[in-house]
Amino acid sequence: MLTLGGISRIVTPGKKSSTCGGLACDDADMTQIIKGGNLPVSGEPMRVAVVRRAAGPGVPEIDPAALLLDDSGKVRGRSDLVFYNQRAHATSAVELLGNARSEDGRMADWLEIDPGRVEPEVERIVIAASSEGATFGEIPGLYLEAVSTATGERMVVYSVDDDDATTETAYVLGEFYRRDGGWKFRAVGQGYDSGLPGLAEDYGFAVEDEAEAEAQEADAGPPPAPALPEAPPPAPPLPAAAAPAGAVTAPAAAVPAEAGAEAAAAAPAVPAGIPVSKSGAPLLGTITRRINSLPTDFGPDFPVFTQEGRGEDIVRVEAATAAGFAVVDLVRLGEGHVEVAALNHRNREKSPSALRGWAEDFTGRGIVDHDGNGPLRLRVKARGEWKITVSPVSVLRDASERVEGVGSDVLAYSGPAVDLAVRYRNSKDDAWFELESLRRSASRRTLHSGDRWPGRSTVALTRGARLLIVSYDSAWSLTPREVTPHPNRREGEIPPFWRRLR
């Protein structure tokens, strides 16, 4: 019996052990395969190591995981995910053992798999790893090794090419699968930018029962593009001209008290936060329809502004003079780079830009933070004809319920703490999705970014008001889900189910 780092391995007398300090040696008789390759393995119990050749200060930690899949390639339920918070399958077919370090600095995280205990319904066992707060590009010399539990002999070794691991936060190294009454191993080498939650969701895992919603989302075509903001309602009529001095006016007819009460009851209420005159009527040109619950300090209300142009130009929005956020919509015909940026009082562009893109016939929505130093001025850089619309934040859609869109957009959220399910799909290989959060008097915070298709993730939103900024060229959706309040919950934090318990 050989004990290494708290992990016992049995070595048959007279047989050569292929271990060096709890890790496999680099002897010449090992069986190596490359990405995409496969190899038969015996049906005897085995131990599988996810190994980092260099471990120590500055090298991120990793967590191994296994998913047991049926013939549809999906997990059957929560118990089919073995990871740091659920360290063994109910059948004991798969179990996390712990880790061990060799004298030369390598670190191995071990799993044990007993094919004889695997249920007949399970067709594949996926071996993966994740790294919290780091990427696999920061983990050099990653490889997987499977050895016989009884003899210590190697069954398979797969080394991840350094070029295959860059920005990923979770990684599928390989899978054991049934074939002709036996088992084989396939080297997969596929990374995920959405961490272990996104990887697990790709195999059908869900903390909640989302099967019906996912099916509807998959069957539905791309959602319609978000509508541009409506034009402001017509201004109330101007008051009657004052009578000339000395003129005699007819006395107004008396209004019965009952009629006055009925008229007051019938008058529409002015939404909170809308400037009003002394008579209580909205001021001329103000927006009287607010479709979200953002506090008024996020941005003033002003008449919707529209201007058309061609090529590069500077747009001056005279109505937007007070400090606060303003919404910018742009429609550009043609192709090429397009960008809209706010200018400061020195005619320098502010960062980040309100909008930026390269799509043909570009349509998108962005946000600017006006400093209130004079009218808002925007520089439009574009080829071809364009139309720009500037609106108050009161026109933003509310993300307290499911929201769908196509292209760049800005949403409002001011509700309780929620888990936000993020979904996006595209038709371009180089499309990049980014979701940011922006509070008043705070910098932007990236909640999720990635280029996988289709992309899936779940991020946390804390309680309070914020803007949600979507940067993308294709279809996406955001779905908030209620959570149990947590006093230490942080913006962008992984949901409670995935929070490490050990």
What tags apply to this protein structure?
502 residues; mainly beta; Lipoxygenase-1; Jelly Rolls; six-stranded antiparallel beta sheet; disordered N terminus
Q: What is the CATH third-level topology name of the largest domain?
A: Lipoxygenase-1
The Rg value, from CA coordinates, equals 30 Å
User: Strands of the biggest beta sheet: in what spatial order?
Assistant: 5-14-13-7-11-10
Whole-number count of domains: 3
| Structural class category | mainly beta
Total count of helical runs of at least 4 residues: 3
Q: Ends: how far apart?
A: 28 Å
Q: What is the average per-residue confidence, as pLDDT, rounded to a whole number?
A: 76
Helix content: under 10%
- Given the C-alpha coordinates, what overall shape results? elongated
Number of strands: 33
Give the strand content: 35-45%
The description of the largest β-sheet is: 6 strands, mixed
Low-pLDDT ranges: 1-29, 209-288
- CATH architecture tag of the largest domain: Sandwich
Question: Could you name the CATH class of the largest domain?
Answer: Mainly Beta
Q: In the CATH hierarchy, what is the superfamily of the largest domain?
A: sav2460 like domains
How would you describe what is shown here?
With 502 residues, the chain is mainly β. The chain has three domains: 2-205, Lipoxygenase-1; 296-394, Sandwich (Jelly Rolls), CATH 2.60.120.1380; 397-498, Jelly Rolls (Sandwich), CATH 2.60.120.1300. Helix content is 5%, strand content 38%. It has helices at 195-202, 211-219, 257-266; strands spanning 2-4, 7-9, 19-20, 23-24, 32-33, 38-41, 46-52, 63-69, 81-82, 94-101, 107-113, 124-130, 142-148, 154-159, 170-179, 182-192, 305-310, 313-317, 324-332, 338-342, 355-357, 363-370, 376-381, 385-392, 397-398, 403-406, 409-413, 418-425, 433-438, 445-450, 455-461, 466-471, 475-482. β15 (170-179) and β16 (182-192) form a beta hairpin. The chain is elongated, with a radius of gyration of 30 Å. The two termini are 28 Å apart. Residues 1-29 and 209-288 have low confidence and may be disordered.
